[in-house]
## 1
Amino acid sequence: MKSKIILLCVLFFLTTAAVSAQAKNAPRSIISTTALIRKYHDQKELSGMQKGELLELYIERIKVLVKTLPYIALVTKPGVTMADLGIPDTSENKKFLDGQAEGTTVFLDTTVDFQRKMMPYSDKGNLIAAILFYETTLKSLHEFNEM
């Protein structure tokens, strides 16, 4: 009975290791798959929201813009990999992509901390205008692909 349990444990760990290794070698998206806006809003809808809700929308839009804009010459949608674009999947290119992702994360962490501390002091009308501006910019990325 003990040998069966030990055998099952060993098989479990080997399977976990194999799956983990495959995940590391899987192609990564150039634009983070979290760079999506689920819903766009209009002025009337935003005016009916509390400032805390507006702040969260504002931060979400900043995150999407930061994760998208540096790459628009390559791609404008999440989920596209280097291989999809014909970029060699070399260790050097992966290193550059990983470094860029890490730098973006550090920048966003700092920016979001700042936004959470300072934006509550902003005027609600300015916050709404900024959200609408960011949403217009994000919508225009869909048109960018058609140029």
Note: The CA atoms of residues 35 and 64 lie 5 Å apart.
## 2
Amino acid sequence: MSDRADFTDFTDFTTSTAPADVVRRQYLASAAGDLAALRATLAADVEWTEMAGFPLAGTYRTPDGVTSNVMERLGKDWDDWTAHDDTYVVDGENVVVLARYTATNKATGKPIDVRVAHHFVVRGGLIVRFEQFVDTARVREAMPA
């Protein structure tokens, strides 16, 4: 493959509106701590739901609301919080990602390595809905009592 083809493929990914590509860009931005790039993947009226029992449980709206109430708060309580996406199942605008979270709680020093499933709905090249499914007890075990 030529350098030109590599560049073209990369450019296509960065601008692609395909649901799996949009979701993948969100994971890459999150892992890099690039909240501006993450917000760029979210619709203005996004609904982002963290599972009941999870430390940040609730539904957050707007790109700023998501990053300030989820990503920034995770960064305050955990070192190296990362969602490792590994399997994508795509059905039209629905993208389900099987992944795992790894991090170390800053207060306790306890690590987590827990499986998670995320359901995204992508329309018009933007994430309009997100729902998290995770073993919340495993996450809470690493946190202060």
Note: The beta strands are 42-50, 58-61, 78-91, 94-105, 111-123, 126-134.
## 3
Amino acid sequence: MTTASTRPPEGRYGRSSDERADHRLKLAAAVLGTLLVVVVGYFGYHYVGQNKISAEVIEYDFTKTSVKVHLEVRKDAGASGYCTIRSQAENGAEVGRADFRFDGDATRIDEVVTLRTTSKGTTAELLGCHAD
């Protein structure tokens, strides 16, 4: 005795529900992947392409109440903005933070700035630079 199959013949009545679900998942993954690439590209362009001021700490020297920081700032001609520097004590507590402005037509500025601290600092960290 043979039993009759209850499944419809292959390809006769369209796709099965599993195939439709797989197709929808693939479509959703493609849309979300494309959206992710666009968002990452947008933020990457604005972070790298629009940053008109960058700087680095060359050296620093400490006293009991201040830190002298030698900064090298690179910027577009005519751009103005500021760089934020902070100092921390040996235990990690922040003992000083200040913004230093840079403007004018020069594209490269070497400057020694003084950051006042509440106690002796052990670091001088550049937190970032921002254009106006």
Note: The CA atoms of residues 70 and 98 lie 14 Å apart.
## 4
Amino acid sequence: MSDSTTAPLSPVVLEAWFDLQCPDCLQALDDVRALREKYGDRLDVQLRHFPLAKHKHAYAAAQAAEEAVEQGKGWPYAEALLARTAELGERGEPVLMEVATELGLDAEEFDTALIDGRHLLTVDADEAEGKAIKVTGTPTYVIGGERLDGGQSQDGLRERIEEIADRLLEG
């Protein structure tokens, strides 16, 4: 997702490779929020799409998140959708529209974007880049050229990200 949490010229970039139907990514939001709070505009957290084949609605969710970026609410949409991962798995794409409506997004434009596939290339590009850097599960983070896999365990992951961010900010 091209939406980030801070100005584009932040000194340290943290790429968060997420699947928006992934329960582990929902848990990872606590770490992302804590990192944003700790570092503010010194850390640019960028959401990148890596929809997993095992999540039937993740690819559509990634496209929906891109439309939310276009409408100025990329991160709020992603966070609201992650809070409903179980419901998305059960009910599917209607949940994407409900979240958009709840956030005050233009529902008609949102629906059109999902039908016409205008965000397919962005999602496909993220997925291809993720595969190229050997992302295999979500969440996965990239900071300072280091890839950190949170798909197996998130224990100690935030601390490792903080160590890298502190080092990069000092240097």
Note: The chain has a mean pLDDT of 91.
